[in-house]
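hi! just following up on the protien thing from before. the input was this:
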Amino acid sequence: DDAPFRCGTHTREHLTVVRTCTFKDAAGAVQAVYHPATTASAMIHAVVDGSITRDNWSATVHRVRDLTVTGLAGAETSRTWNGTGEGTATRSRHNNNGETRSYDVSATGALTNVVVNLPRDENRWPVSGTATKHVSVTVTGGPRDGQTFERTVTITFNGTQFVPIQVNDKTFTFDLKTRRIVRDGV
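and the predicted 3d structure came back as:
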């Protein structure tokens, strides 16, 4: 049993998600299954692959993430997440005039000491830690043909819905609920 983790193979909107979970006790010994009293940590290796086609665009996706969550054993009050990931995607947009633009995206990311208090329904937002992603996008076609854009994004969690987000050298406020950048925290 992998509860409360979703391990195994799942399909979501034409994407195949394969999660492999490894559970360990407090001494670091591997456990055959998750046990709420004795499992101290879980390592989750996730691979996402697939293609999506809609009206005037299509995309292919490949992502790999390796996450570790600690603080699981016994009567938990919080969990701490750490890990890394990387991925690629190709997106194409087809206009009515026959023009095609493609975007080749590559990304790397990391979660560093992201602490989530429990129970989750009373503690919706991580209380500390960071999520960082570096994204590179190369455009083929259109007025920006051949251009590459680079962005490094860092979110710093603070226990609230509105958190600071650094995009390259600029700081904004990010709404975790809507997943939108907002001005002045509203």
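The chain has a mean pLDDT of 93.
The longest strand covers residues 100-117.
cheers
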